[in-house]
Amino acid sequence: MLDRVAEIQAEAEAAVAAAGDTAELEELRVRYLGRKAELTGILRGIADLPQEERGKVGSGANRAQKELEAKLEARAVDLDSRELESRLDEDRVDVTLPAAPPRPIGHLHLITRTTRQIEDVMVGLGYRVMEGPEVEHDHYNFTALNHPPGHPARMLQDTFYVQSSPELLLRTHTSPVQPRSMETQPPPIFIVAPGKVYRRDSDATHSPMFHQVEGLAVGEGITLADLQGTLEEMLRAIFGPGREARMRPHFFPFTEPSVEFDVSCFQCDGTGFLAGGAQRCNLCKGIGWIEVGGAGMVDPNVLGFVESSGYDGERVQGFAFGMGVERIAMLRHGVPDLRRFFDNDVRMLEQFA
Questions:
Q1: Does the structure show a pLDDT above 90 at 202?
Q2: Which tens digits make up the pLDDT trace of 65-105?
Q3: How much is the pTM?
Q4: Are strands 317-324 and 289-298 parallel, antiparallel or unpaired?
């Protein structure tokens, strides 16, 4: 019986050494060490052998089984390594070659491009770009901007509340960046704050989420005339040279006096008519002016919230303005519905590649 065990071991070791791949090796494992293998049958039949042969045969068969298992494991590692190298060699791709066909290069979304253009214009005028959190404290979003609790102007900016105590909400404008920035640096300050804002609106010209850009300038001797000049330079850079800015009286809680500002229509050149005066301009509705945003001189009450940072309302004053990025993009590119910016319709977005 011991001679047969030695023959099985020698035969199995030779077959394992000659195995060409892992599949063949697995077949050998089943053949020589599986439940129906001859060596396994010998181990199971130890109890049927004469008493004097059991120890020798059992010891020899166990030793042969363990040595075969070790040979199989070592051979498996070697074959796995060779097969991996072969697959890597076969699957090798020359990454220096262009794709076939070349994939089209993407581009910035129109809203991002418009925001960056406005930022570039304002940086050129000496402003710094500042950012703030989209989940904002009620204090910065309303109270510090002269919207005390119960103020009716809060209803016009109904928003989404995240937490009740302390009150956290999705900001309704980027104006909270103004008191936050003034708390961290003394005057003079010249900043522009772009970003996402949220309100409970949804129609062709309003979205629950949209983008704003707000500007703030505070220092000594700043007047409404400086606001007029700043708006004209900004609007000419965005809509083209020759544009004029018009300010109309309005009301905002955080500015006094407050104005809405318009740009002269760039389609009819401010005349209100097209084709030599025979057709009313469809962009400005025949008025010659297009509303762009709101502005005004910073209300002294707003400066009072940051007086400890050096903003004494008796010594410094300034102006603030704000406008929607989507509205600017709609005007410049003739997009009829604000919702098209967020539909992710590739046909629409590819027009502005």
A1: no
A2: 888 888 888 888 888 888 888 888 887 777 776 666 766 77
A3: 0.67
A4: antiparallel
User: Are 57 and 2 spatial neighbours (Cβ–Cβ below 8 Å)?
Assistant: yes
Does pLDDT of 316 surpass 90? yes
User: Is residue 327 included in any domain, yes or no?
Assistant: yes
User: Do 244 and 284 belong to one domain?
Assistant: yes
Whether 141 and 169 have beta carbons less than 8 Å apart is answered as yes
Residue 152 Cα distances to 142, 170, 199, 329, angstroms: 11, 19, 16, 31
Note the helical H segments in the chain: 2-18, 22-33, 38-44, 51-90, 110-124, 138-141, 177-184, 224-239, 300-304, 325-333, 346-349
Residues 134 and 261 in one domain: yes
103 domain residue, yes or no? no
| Pair of tokens at residue 237 | 């850079």
Higher pLDDT: 140 or 86? It is 140
CATH number for the domain harbouring residue 228: 3.30.930.10
DSSP code of residue 105: P
For residues 271 and 313, membership in a common domain is answered with yes
From the CB of residue 77, how many other CB atoms can be counted at a distance below 10 Å? 9
Number of domains in the chain: 2
Instruction: List, for residues 242-296, the tens digit of each pLDDT value.
Output: 899 999 999 998 999 999 999 999 888 888 998 777 789 888 889 999 999 999 9
Looking at the domain assignment, is residue 105 inside a domain? no
118 and 27 in a common domain:
no
Residue 157 has pLDDT above 80, yes or no: no
What is the chain's mean pLDDT, rounded? 87
Determine which helix (DSSP H) or strand (DSSP E) holds 6, and give its type and residue range: helix 2-18
* Cα within 13 Å of Cα(98), Cβ side: 6
334: left (phi over 0), alpha (psi -120 to 50) or beta: left
Domain range enclosing 164: 110-352
Phi and psi at 172, nearest 5°, equal: -95, -10
